[in-house]
Amino acid sequence: MTLIISIIAVFVAFGALILGSMAIKKTEHEITEFANVVRRDFAAVRGDVDAKLAAIDKKMEKLERRVDQARETEAETRRMFNEVSRDLAVLRDSVTELEASLPPQFRRRNHMAENQINN
Fold it and tell me: Using an 8 Å Cβ cutoff, are 59 and 52 in contact?
């Protein structure tokens, strides 16, 4: 009787091993399929993100170039403004010297213009 019980126990053990290995194979297969789906989705998302990053990088480069151009233009405008201001100051000084060099009887003051400026 013990022999029969031990043979049955061996068959039950082999059955448990077979069922366990089948469950492991099924689980490994499901995990592999899930991992493939996740990899595929991740690759698609990564491709989209890479494309968007490339577009953003291009836009940033364009904006940086425009900012650099604006800074150069601003610097050129300031330089020209300073030159015009200096030329205007020189011209004002020249006019003042010219007025001072004229005799008083030849100097003409425009009283209307001075009144408009003062108001």
Answer: no
